[in-house]
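Dig into my protein:

:::
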Amino acid sequence: MTGPPRDAAPAARRLARVPAALDARRFAAVRALLFALACVPLARLFYLAATDALGANPVEFVIRSLGTWALVLLCATLTITPLRWLTHWAWLARLRRMLGLFCFAYATLHVFAYVGLDQWFDGTALGADILKRPYITAGVAAYLLLLPLAATSSHAMVRRLGGRNWQRLHRLVYAVALLVLLHYAWQKAAKNDFATVAVYATVISALLGVRLLRWLSPRRLPAPALTATGIRRGTGR
């Protein structure tokens, strides 16, 4: 005979204590903490550069580190909506834009490091590299799709485009996620490093899959409208 069942959901009870809406002071604290955490990888690179600890190939280290953190922040951005569905924390939607812009910032630094430190701004060599290496081609395509998303991330652009048009445009993030994963997988395949690729592939597949399942659900709610601040009523992107 077994004893009385143990409470298997202490974490769920703790999550339930978090309010669906945060007051301005608490939200500002959460936002500031997330901002600081997103800056840590870049600060680490500066520290390693200052202490001459970037390794035997510092250019490669910098480029790949920036690219990896752009991928991590892309995954974090895509996690916001499913997490919001699960927890009903409405305030999470207000963090999505900041995470998305950090993803774009790291991706931009990744691209500039490649163009400046690896290719030395040589347009001919750069064009040849893009055409010759499929993983570079996929990476450039992903970055080009990120540009309109970053350019239209402000509240003013949401109002100018209209909620539905803005919504349709920002679905490009799903194509970005697949292209970035392809870029990362091809790059890692050259070194037979498939373990980390499998981790990111699993995460991205799950984040896109849960959206697909929700979209295919026969009881799916009508597509929610966006408010003037870009936050959807009901569900998130």
About this structure: Residues 81 and 224 are 13 Å apart (CA to CA). The radius of gyration is 20 Å. Residues 221-236 have pLDDT under 50 and may be disordered.
